[in-house]
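Ticket #4471: complex job returned nothing on first submit. Input attached below:
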Amino acid sequence: MNDGIELDIITELVNIGIGEAAASLSDLTQRRVLIRTPEIKIMNVADISEYIETNMQSTGVYIAQDFEGPVTGKTILCYTQECSQSLINILDPHAVKTSSLTVSAMATLQEIGNIVMVSCITTIGDMMAGSLKFYMPSASLETSRTYFQNLIKDMEKFDKAIMVKNDMAIAQDKSDKTDKIEGYLFILLSFDHFEKVVVQLREKNLV
Amino acid sequence: MIPTDTASLPHMSSPFLSEAIASELSVTLLEGVGCGIIGLDRDFGIILWNEWIGKHSSTQADSILGKNIFDSFPSIKEKNQERYLQQCMFERIPVLLSPFFHDFLIPLKIIKGDRTLSMKQSVKIFPVSGTKSDLSVVIVIQDLTEQIIHEEIINRLTRVLKGIRSINKLITRVTSKDELFEGACKILIEKIGYDFSWIGLIEGEGFEQKPVAVSGIKMEDLDELVLLSDHSDYGRGAAIEAIKTGKPQVKIIERNEADSLSSTWQGITGPIRHRSSCSLPLKKDKRVIGTVNVYSNEENVFYEEELDLLQEVAQDIEFAIATLEEREQRQYFQMALAGEKERLSVTLRSIGDGVITTDIDGRVISVNTVAETLTGWTQAEAEGTPLTEVFNIVNEHTRESCENPVEKVLKSGKIIGLANHTVLIAKDGTEKPIGDSGAPIWGKENTPIGVVMVFRDMSEQLKNKIEKEKLLEDLAQSQKMESIGTLTAGISHDFNNILGIIVGNTELALDEIPQWNPAHSYLEDIKTASLRATMIVKQLLSFTRNTGNKLQSMEICAVLKDALKFLRSTIPTTIKIQLDIRVTDETVLADPIQINQIIMNLCINASQAMTQTGGTLSVKIEKVVLEENEAKDSYNLKNGHHIKISVNDTGPGIDPAIIDRIFDPYFTTKEVGKGSGMGLAVVQGIVKNHNGSISVNSSAGHGTTFTILFPMTDQEKMIEKDTSEKTLMGTESVLLVDDEIPIVKMVKRMLERLGYKVNGVNSSQDALTLFRENPSHFDLVITDMTMPHMTGVMLSEKIMEIRPDIPIIICTGHSAIVDEEKAQKLGLSAFVMKPIDHLEISTVIRKVLDETVQ
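Support reply: We reran it on our side without changes. The output follows.
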């Protein structure tokens, strides 16, 4: 399989999912929301921790969601704490800026994360025969090292990861001015399921 | 994590759990869990309603089970939230609803204190497989109201803290109270988030205050507002209460009161309908001086913690006010001090004396302008330098350094003066005599903290003192000369009379006695001696400056040459004469006879100084121009062109011990009989009479030089008249009056020889009687001036009263009494000086008589 073509089609699928997510968020927030994906790459799960440690050194908000069905996997969406706080402040300018995010802020981020992740995975799931089942997402605020160390056991089930670097731009209230929020979305799959997705894409003549 | 499509929760089953355990667990969880759980069937009918939700909704399960959720809770559709349930139900996608975006899914009320609030909910909607039951969707509701309220409180308190931080920053940079108040109000609105704030200050002694800054509305709206302490709208607010009680006052306005209470404020604030307000007293020295007032459109926002923080804001503002006032006061004092310093500096600089101040160690602190000039040290150079370096003083005579004035002053603790003859040596080495004083500078605790030196350049004073002494000396000399002159004049008058008698009678006798008779030669000797005596008297009169001779414009060169040509025959041949005449037709106002006398006196004195050794007598005559300073300072003359006559000898010089006395009358170094001591005194008298100057320069062994300066004149020179007159005769009748009988006799004979008919009397009264008896008998009256009972002038007046046309000649030996000019003024015909010379009197008589006839 041509890796380049494979990546292209995955990128296309992810962008569709991200577009869906942006539309949902826009509907939710009643603001203009744009999500760009400047970088999508396929990497080994084992490399995620190092990658994220390099690119996101500070504490971050990690929202994880498992899904099962024709394809089983896990999505992890992460934003740095600063970005998360910025996102909350864009939505609520009077929100308090504390070192740890508040319960209500975490609930807000969790809702946003759910929309983004479900939109992306649903797009992929739509390509597969049978419907996907989603678990309720969980959210936590911690460092990348701690987070991934706690996740080692869970991640052993997966081999490949589709890394989607995403820049979310949300317009400020009653203004065209936008603030950019940078985040990472990882879609973790086993070899088999990754291969399954690729095969399915091929069968659908998308590759 | 709960899988979303596993067995339905009420009938939970799992490969690891028995159905019985699962069932019991389900019930336990459903009723024990601290959140609401609602189960829906595929038609959105409520089939599960746990105790928590029943409790919070006040709706028990039996009354709601089986009902459609949208019918039971219409707000779900109103809020367009049914899509989330549908999405979960049909697309099997779990949905999360956060309180931020949705507030709630199921409208529930909670009681918080005395308030009823709408529950803030975090909602999770799970799809359930429903394989063993009708359960299709499970809704889990978590109450986040408490957390959100706390977050809001924290949020608000954080903003207040930020506001305090901003006010603290403001305090560090504001420069005025206005800036502080305006900045603080702005922070209360923009940083903390209140709707309206103002700061008021009490005016006068009462409770009434006027807003000085405002934010949230326009200041113009408050410009004219004064908050009263009465029962008007302005007098019932929290601000007045805060002033009265000195404590923070919180006011909550119920919705139904909002429009009635504080309508004034509501009117001013316009669209801002505040629901709560807080007024914090501002205090200074425990006295309330104003208030900080904040308003919010939310109810009951001023919680205890927030109120505490707001009090901190007020305290910060109080601190800032105190700091600013202190700063203002300090600036005022600094400005006053700077002004005082400037005034002192200007004063010091304006003082005509030098002023130097030092510290206790004698190091210079300040130097005024005069001190800079006198010492040659600038303020910058002198500052910090030991006084002894800047103020280098020595004794004029011993050249020893004077005692350090700082030590001297500090030792005595009093004002001290410097010793006499102190000289200040400036930085460039120049020296100036100074007079000064030093005084301690006393500090607050009456201890000396330095010394101030005040000094002045005494050069001018010393010069003036010398000049004054010279003037006093000159005055004494002048008074001495005047006394001598008066004495001389009196003596001269008597001498003239006596000599007139001697000479006149001698001449008469000579006419009578033939030449062969030995008595003739004796008479000749008498006459010669008498004439010499006459000359001495004339010299005495010259000394007294009362010779009666008038100064006339004349060529000085001709007069001097005339005098000098007789020198050679007078001076011994052992003395060489050098003449250096550098003038030609320059004119001066002078009496030729007196100029001649000056030259003769000086040259004869010079030759006498060289009689023993021989030598050279030099006479130099030149024209010089005196500049103003030189003319005034050196010669006491006016500036301009002068004739300078220098008479120099190569004799032994004049002893310095006596040089100051050489012009004194009767002072002589010659042997008795060889000099009268009048020579130089006469010369000085003549020179001064000619408005000139005489000076002497002599040193032992180097000869003497007399220098005379005469001012030149622009007047045309007089034509010298022919003096070769002859004795003129006449036959007219003359009335002769003199109180000296011998003179009457002598003059009578003289006139009779000239052919006149003379009636001689020795009393003015007799003369008047004689004239009155027969006025027409007389053609001429000749009268002495000084006579007892009736002077010559008085007699003349009386005679002219009798016969105004009678010519009168008046004779006097003292020109001070009458001179030619005075005689003419009195209507007299002529004036003749005694002793009467027969040639002169004959000429005058003839002239007067002839003029009368004409």
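The CA atoms of residues 116 and 175 of chain A lie 23 Å apart. Closing as resolved unless it happens again.
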